[in-house]
Amino acid sequence: MKEFLLYNKLAFLPLKVIEVVQNNLLRAHLKYAAAKSPYYKEIFKEKNINPAKIKLADLAQLPFTTKNEISTRTKDFYAVKDSDVADIVLSSGTTGLPTKIIYTAKDLRRLKYNEYKSFISCGMTKEDTVLLTCTMDRCFIAGLAYYFGVQAVGAAAIRNGLSSLESHAEMIKRMTPTVIIGVPSFLKKLGLYCREQKINTNIINKLICIGEPLRNERMDMLPIGRDLVSVWPLAKLYSTYSSSETISTFCECTQKRGGHLHPDLAIVEIVDNMGNVLPSGAQGEVVITPLAIEGMPLVRFRTGDISFIIEGDCGCGRKSLRLGPILGRKQQMMKIKGTTVYPQAVYTALDEVYGVNDYYLEAFSEQDLSDMLIVHVSIKNNTLTAEGIASALQAKLRVKPEVVIEEDKIIRDKVYCPSSRKPVHFFDERKP
After folding, report:
1. Which stretch of DSSP H or E encloses residue 426?
2. Domains of the chain with CATH codes
3. For 101-109, what is the mean pLDDT?
């Protein structure tokens, strides 16, 4: 990790200084990719791109990299020999099969440094004991990344992984952690279970939330965030966003006003559907150019996630850009009777309907380039009707989906599938 510490305080320096350093790091990254990666060697030659002359202002001239290209030409993205590979990660792919991502030993040190920067920004210290509720196996990187970060901070890690509520509650009781890292919807269930079992949760001072957003585009707390505040009253909530392909993580600091970008590790752009770079504050697709990657260097990787950039000095002292909450997935965007709807917006609306217990969505193709949405819900009382829920959704979404009320067990069995590392609330049955 020592080789990355040179620029550890870069985010606190003036933007002009950050830009000078990023220009140098970007050129080094592009020169390495052009020399070592067969894919970029080919693309740069074909596009007549000279990496030595590229600056931040020129980044928009470079071609994008997509998940489809990585999954269909995986080996061409390798910039090292097979003998240099230290870890193999599987990421969701566009071909139906997980995409193979390789990390070298240096990439793993970079990962550790990235998580270290993220965790210290939200106040984690070596005095903390951290309960990890995310998997470290099955070729996922998240659990390993968070473990590395906890170790780098000097805190103690409890690697309990994807275990039951009973198991995690016992760990809280016996190991007295001060921080928990996990998916918000699971942390809500864990907190409620601990309350039922009369297990003291006041020892928890931080919840670092992964996989699901806590805030909306106005940075107001979503219903799941408000629920967590109620269930874990003494814990501060922090949201973190990560991308396994780019080995990058952006975590909120103690100010909770967006995930800090690490200027020495990644350059982030927001683009519209046509690929045009958008100004700060405008919503679009997150594009990441990770810096200092050895195994699979990428250029302008389209994540498929929708968010926006936040400018301005942060109360924590950092002057670097921040990434807003993830508002949805581009590939999950639905067009219903001319209105654009993301699943996350439906989740938020459902969470605000009193009496809705759990839910999942199904999207189907219809005629005239329109999608059909069916919302399956379970309810806590008999006063709610499908028509009432549909009307409540219409008031929030400007479209009125079909609503089906199901038994709670049917919903749970669909949402909490053992083969998935987190709850699945959206099932896309649309034709490609």
Report:
1. strand 426-428
2. 1-327 (3.40.50.12780), 333-428 (3.30.300.30)
3. 97
